[in-house]
Amino acid sequence: MRKINKLVMGVLVGSMLLTSCSEFGDMNTDPNRPSNPLTSGLLTGAQRSVSSVVGDATSVLYAQHLSEKQYTESSRYQTVYFDFNGFYSGPLMNLQRIIELNTNEATKGDVLSSGSNENQIAVARILKAYFFASLTDRWGELPYTEALQGELDFSPSYDSQEFIYTDLMKELKEAAAQINPATAAVEGDLLFDGNMESWRRFANSLRMILALRMSDVAPQAAQTNFTEAYSGGILLTNFMYPYLGEANNQNPWYARYLTRVDYAISDTMYDYMMPLGDPRLAVYADPAANTGTIESMPYGVSNAEAGSITNAEVSYLGGAIREQSAELPIVTVAQLEFSLAEAALKGWISESAEEHYLKAIEASFRQYGVYNKAAYDAFVAQPEVAWSEAAGMERIGYQKWVALFLQGFEAWAEWRRLDYPVLTPAKDALNASKEIPVRQAYPTSERDINTDNYQEAVSRQGEDGLDTKLWWDVK
């Protein structure tokens, strides 16, 4: 905890050294070459923004893991336009600055206190790929190749999602190869504490996940990238975001419950897990106050209907998951095992799809502390869960959805790609189509300020709304 506190404090110090000018002016000072730039502070700052991905609530509602209890507009798809500007001006700009300072001959020697140049660049490239992958899976086409130029270009053009995915594959492959464990590890790293082998494995794991995402539209490229990444070594333990027992860096679900009690286990998830006797349900949700048993909340109902149900009648998000310092998953072993099961089912790897599928469920049980061999064996023997080659994608889709609990963006993306589980739209949906969103619309600032490039992107991709499918979503 002390280590993370020091890293968080480094954000402020690094930012001051990199961007501030003295109140006495900047005479005789080269603003492009600060004397002691702390790129470690920039890295910590960028990593803290990972929390806004893994702790997002709207995507969890889209995936129907949870229902809202009081104000149900988000689960009824009221919001159409979502803002990506904070990612560009925040973590992505930080990471771009790290790359520039470690590449520029005039500054690359000044930043060695934060790790070797090659390792800093590699980590920044991997994190950039992580953020851009999350963004493009929300909006589709994005400012990419012309982005992050600051005052040099306030109106960047958009790249197609196909181009972005292709480049992300390249970036992850090259960054993994660029890591040099024989040189100084990165400093300011609150995610892996400077473990460069873990960063390499994360790059390969992310590349594997993204390769599957594009498997329906670019199968050959997807297979090549998947098998290369897998052979290079992937994560062997759960990769979690580390929160603290303090307001500075606390679990966002804990923070939400400070202001109102508004997230309960959805009837969608309950109705699938409860008949199977899934032991994870007791971790995902607390017993309802009036019954002492787990009770679900109807998904996507009006505020009036939700208000007619008392707080004591439903089960809220499990207390252990929403503790102030409770970690949230970035990439899990279960997620990767499900990916390997699918790759085996597709014939990409000569391994057993059933074995990886069963390992995935076991890994998820272990992740939530509910693994017991006898109970596990009984669970996977049930007809609805037991492996079936003919129904392989359905089995993977449903169990992966359960295992991706609170990994909202991943669960939402995989539902769009696999079309499993079968989800029913919100009963009282507020969007025009009344369907579950398959993307999010661009911030209105792009329409108003970057108009020409925005309009070109919309003309290629389709209407800027919640119902336009992304490039990889063809089913």
TrEMBL record:
Leader sequence residues: 1-25
Superkingdom in the source lineage: Bacteria
Alphabetized SUPFAM superfamilies for the sequence: TPR-like
The protein's name: SusD/RagB family nutrient-binding outer membrane lipoprotein
PROSITE patterns linked to this entry: PROKAR_LIPOPROTEIN
Pfam families: SusD-like_2 (PF12771)
InterPro entries: SusD-like_2, TPR-like_helical_dom_sf
Keywords: Lipoprotein, Signal
